[in-house]
Please model this.
Amino acid sequence: MKDIATIFLSISLLFQTLNGVKAGFLCVDDTFLANSSYGQNRDSLFSSLASQVITNRGFYNASLNSVHAVALCRRGYERQACINCVEKAIRVIKTSCSDRMKSFDWDNDDADQVSCLVRTTNYSTFGKLGLGPATRDISPLDIDSSTKNMTLFRQEWEETVNRTLEAATVNTSVSVLKYYGVVNAEFVEFPNVYMMMQCTPDITSGECKRCLEECVTYFRDMFWGKQGGTICRPSCLFRWDLYAFYGAFANITRVPAPPRPFIPEAQAISVTSLKGKNIAIVVVPSVLHLFVLLGLIRAYRQLKKSKDETSVCAEEDCISDSQFMLRFDLSMVLLATGDFSPENKIGQGGFGSVYKGILPSGQEIAVKRLTRGSEQGEVEFRNEVLLLTRLQHRNLLM
Ligand SMILES: *[C@@H]1O[C@H](CO)[C@@H](O)[C@H](O)[C@H]1NC(C)=O
Ligand SMILES: *[C@@H]1O[C@H](CO)[C@@H](O)[C@H](O)[C@H]1NC(C)=O
Ligand SMILES: *[C@@H]1O[C@H](CO)[C@@H](O)[C@H](O)[C@H]1NC(C)=O
Ligand SMILES: *[C@@H]1O[C@H](CO)[C@@H](O)[C@H](O)[C@H]1NC(C)=O
Ligand SMILES: *[C@@H]1O[C@H](CO)[C@@H](O)[C@H](O)[C@H]1NC(C)=O
Ligand SMILES: *[C@@H]1O[C@H](CO)[C@@H](O)[C@H](O)[C@H]1NC(C)=O
Ligand SMILES: *[C@@H]1O[C@H](CO)[C@@H](O)[C@H](O)[C@H]1NC(C)=O
Model:
């Protein structure tokens, strides 16, 4: 527990707070009277919605008098996570859309690795494409266009969009949740780009495609340059990010990047060594007995399963656990941080100071420098590094 507190302390020093807009839900203007039968009918539908979604293998729609409700979970959902997500969406609608006839909430929980939809209307939406209105949740971070080739990125992104769209709208009826596509692609500009698309199964594949294309267009037109985002419409969801979200990419084979003409050395190290993790953590046991931690500043992350978070390892575990860690020469770290120059100091953490640095590749890094104290300090520092590799949350910028 102490370790976790320390980490949050160092994270809060290291990383700015992000104001991610949580806007997965939307209420549409028409109101009903608080005490009306509409509200009672809606509550009555809500009371069995979560269990009915499970019974109906991921998608369920029901009506009671003039109230219509739809619920959906992500393909491959875990039972309890789906129930929790639907119940959370219902709470959001009850609280935020307490007297609105129409509402929808594409909710999600990164920690629970789930996403789901709950929608209510005063007319049947079954088989009807619902394009508007849209909600969004966009990454507050910009892609650093001074180090990334945005032309190339755009091209790779569009290819990934096409690939995901194709996967999501392929005409099969193997699953209740038939419109679903996830792609993990390696870009020249980023080691991992994750994309997911899903539609409700009651519409046609052509309608699903149209819905998703409108989401993509919305992102492209309004938020191009951001490091990820979600666009939701009543019938579909589009999300892409630089980290794996909702646990949706566990069994997905990464699409390799096309061969590239020139690979900056440092970037090549990070691409090959990260093994699918979009985080680089570096431990350098130097002659000076400094341990140095590098966290790449460019991504925000997902909170892993809580049992992973709290595990604190023994020395052997740490080593076997750290196969995706990178080792950097102290000289490289010194170069990046200008010999730990005071100008580059951005904070004071649990076991040492934190410095900003720039690798030869142009990648911005944060370096934490531990001055050698006791053996205990080293172990704690190592555990912190390991925890950081596992602790991923969208609101933590590292
Ligand atoms: C709401 O309905 C309940 C039961 O039908 C009734 O007791 C209560 O007075 C009503 N409240 C209002 C504000 O109309
Ligand atoms: C959804 O509603 C339609 C039309 O009302 C109905 O035919 C269908 O069986 C319902 N599906 C589920 C899973 O309840
Ligand atoms: C739904 O509610 C709106 C606004 O109150 C109303 O205009 C519309 O006729 C209703 N639709 C149905 C099918 O009852
Ligand atoms: C960016 O990528 C495009 C497409 O691959 C290429 O034509 C262009 O030369 C690149 N620009 C820079 C500055 O590397
Ligand atoms: C993606 O698909 C659209 C429509 O099929 C096509 O016009 C476009 O060239 C494709 N883009 C890429 C990068 O493959
Ligand atoms: C998709 O599948 C359905 C039923 O399986 C079929 O009726 C429809 O024609 C198919 N559409 C396309 C475009 O293949
Ligand atoms: C990945 O595969 C394992 C084993 O086949 C399965 O238990 C798990 O549910 C899969 N995960 C996803 C997200 O599909």
User: Anything to note?
Assistant: Residues 150-169 form the longest helix (20 residues). The domain at 127-261 is CATH 3.30.430.20 (Killer Toxin P4; Chain A). Residues 61 and 67 are 11 Å apart (CA to CA). The chain has three domains: 25-125, 127-261, 263-390.
